[in-house]
Design a protein that fits this description.
Strand 2 and strand 3 (89-91) form a beta hairpin. The protein has an 8-stranded antiparallel beta barrel. The longest helix has 41 residues, at 3-43. The radius of gyration is 33 Å and the shape is globular. The chain has helices spanning 3-43, 54-57, and strands at 59-67, 75-81, 89-91, 99-106, 109-118, 126-136, 139-149, 155-165. The chain is built from 2 helices and 8 strands. By secondary structure, it is α+β, with helices and mostly antiparallel strands.
Length: 167
């Protein structure tokens, strides 16, 4: 082999070795990147909302419920909340007697069940309501499903709730 051929062979071997070294290094880098990515994925947790503390919700709330479809007129009432699950009521304007509410809590959700009581929206009809509300940004939001007792099949209305603390 000539001196020139030897140099070319050495340069080619060096290039091949350099290429292999880069691949091993890249492989090691990607393996460690994958490992750190995997470990950060496995150590991260989904944030679940903190359970609601009824003592933080206690007081009077000015509530507004609007049907989710069709009629857009609002039903307004005052929700009186206590620091536990007993003693909650709904008071409608112009009605002397508040409606008692059964309360339960699951995580950040407050479930309310009331009735049957005379409907504000449908005169002469009894209604039973089931609501799920959450406290968000200092207000209360959620939905109510109203079941009206009528002679035909059950009549249901779903409403969107919003509420602010009474002053």
């Amino acid at each position: 082999m000539s001196h020139r051929t030897t140099r070319i062979a050495i340069c080619c071997c060096a290039a091949v070795l350099a290429g292999c070294a880069k691949k091993e290094s890249a492989s090691a880098d990607s393996t460690s990147a994958m490992a750190s990515s995997t470990s950060s994925t496995t150590t991260s947790t989904t944030t679940t909302p903190a359970p609601v503390n009824l003592a933080d919700v206690a007081g009077k709330w000015n509530m507004r419920s609007v049907p989710m479809s069709g009629d857009t007129s609002a039903t307004t009432y005052v929700l009186t909340a206590t620091a536990n699950t007993s003693g909650w009521t709904i008071s409608f304007p112009g009605r002397a007697t508040p409606v008692p509410v059964k309360v339960s809590v699951d995580g950040d959700s407050i479930m309310l069940a009331a009735g049957p009581y005379p409907s504000v929206r449908r005169k002469g009809v009894q209604v039973t309501t089931y609501s799920v509300n959450r406290v968000q940004n200092g207000g209360m939001v959620g939905t109510t499903t109203a079941h009206y007792k009528v002679k035909s099949a059950d009549s249901v209305l779903v409403l969107s709730n919003t509420g602010t603390r009474a002053q």
